[in-house]
Request: fold
Amino acid sequence: MEATSQLRQAVLTWLEQARDLPSIPQAITDVALSAQPEFEAVVNAVVSAAPKSEHRDLYGKVDGDWLPRWSTLLGSVFK
Reply:
């Protein structure tokens, strides 16, 4: 339950920061959203709440490390 709470708080803080993006659709891209300062906290909270062993679809191998796929995360946040 604590991991879910941390994830919720990280996402809320991240979305608050994203409010500062220009309001034109071209500015609100997955790259722009993932560049927000709190996105790293979101990724860390996802790792804690949804480990790779249970949610392999959220992860991809990058430079030899298994990391959350930010494009998948962003897609699931905005569905």
In short: The helical segments are 2-18, 30-34, 39-49, 70-77.
